[in-house]
Amino acid sequence: MFIGLTFSLLLIFSKRINQNANRFLGFAALVIVLWNIWVLSHDLDFFRYAPQFYLLPLNFSLALGPSLYFYTKSISDVSFAFSKKNWIHFVPVALELIVHAIISIEALDKTILATSTSAFFVLIPIVQILAICSVIVYSAFALKEIKRYHSWLNDNYSNSSQYSLGWLYRLLFIFALFWCLWIPYILVDYLVFNFKLDIPDYYPLYILMSIITIWISAEAYLKPEVILLGPKTEPEIEKLVPNDDVVEKAGWLIDQMEHNLYYLNPELTLTALASSLDVHPNKLSNIINEGIGKSFSDFVNEYRTKAVVARLKNPEYNHITLLGISYECGFNSKTTFNRVFKEVMGVTPFEYKKSLSA
């Protein structure tokens, strides 16, 4: 509770580059914190000593999925702005508040604990199932958004590792998978035990849910923030067909790359290259995609790999480390260099260097 609340407040109130996106994630963490307060109060039998405490709404599980989705959307699309129409995604939270009101009214009317009312036993499982479906569906949308974002990165950035959201993709996938575990738990509780399983029986799920949420929040807050060098969306133009004109332009582009060595610039982007060549970014993208049949990232990094190979074969570069040579040739990440080199050459840089001296 305290760790989650700390990261929640930091994400909501810290003035950072991605502040608007961080607020959604901070709210998601706060939802889990409030949920844990409810669990702790129930487990310590606090409701028995202060029945009115239940009147305070603490469960907003139907806001969790949309919050995670809009965090992902905001952080992966610099052109996205949350608008009034997006509030419709949070309308189901009103259903949760209505259920809470129905249970509270029955508890006050019958002067019994809210968790002992018939409305609680009937309505809470329904809300839980809806919350599970909501989180899983919105997580799927978020994962799809990250895939789209990575595809855009490959088409616009030559070195995209620092902008990658692979960490978020992995954690969201784990989070969604974890929420799938709630389904058999609730079904067994409701159908087999007549909704009689106690809070301790759900502890493994509550603890895992808290850990994963804090993990996502910590990663988001502690990772260095980056600024994309251009908008995610470009004006749409009609795609080129790979005809003779495109093939000719592809040949021209290859000549320009080999002659001017643009690939040696580690910060090379599609927009920057288009500006240097005096070509519209969309036009250049189509030439690379349709005429050469590669993404911008693959196109540029293949040249960098060939430049590394040429230097490894040149004795004049024997005094420079592999990493040093990779940086000279335009790579700015050891991980990206090793991955790209193996994709292009079929072996790791170390294995290739070793084969040259064999």
Task: Describe the 3D structure.
- The protein has helices at 2-13, 19-43, 46-49, 64-76, 92-110, 118-156, 166-180, 182-192, 203-222, 244-260, 270-277, 281-292, 296-312, 322-328, 334-345, 349-356.
- With 358 residues, it is mostly helical.
- The chain has two domains: 2-222; 244-356, Homeodomain-like (Arc Repressor Mutant, subunit A, Orthogonal Bundle), CATH 1.10.10.
- It is elongated.
- Residues 233-242 have low confidence and may be disordered.
Summarize the helices and strands and which ones pair or pack:
Elements: H1 2-13, H2 19-43, H3 46-49, H4 64-76, H5 92-110, H6 118-156, H7 166-180, H8 182-192, H9 203-222, H10 244-260, H11 270-277, H12 281-292, H13 296-312, H14 322-328, H15 334-345, H16 349-356
Helix pairs in contact: 1-2, 1-9, 2-4, 2-9, 4-6, 5-6, 6-7, 6-8, 7-9, 10-12, 13-14, 13-15
Gist of the model:
With 358 residues, this protein is mainly α. It folds into two domains: 221 residues; 113 residues, Arc Repressor Mutant, subunit A (Orthogonal Bundle).
What is the number of helical segments per DSSP (H or I, 4+ residues)?
A: 16
What structural category arises from helix and sheet content? mainly alpha
Number of domains: 2
End-to-end Cα distance: 59 Å
Q: Unreliable segments (pLDDT under 50, ≥5 consecutive)?
A: 233-242
Order of helices and strands: HHHHHHHHHHHHHHHH
Largest sheet: none
How many strand elements?
Answer: 0
Q: Any idea what the radius of gyration is? A: 27 Å
**Strand percent estimate:** under 5%
* Helicity range: 55-70%
Q: Describe the global form.
A: elongated
The pLDDT mean sits at: 86
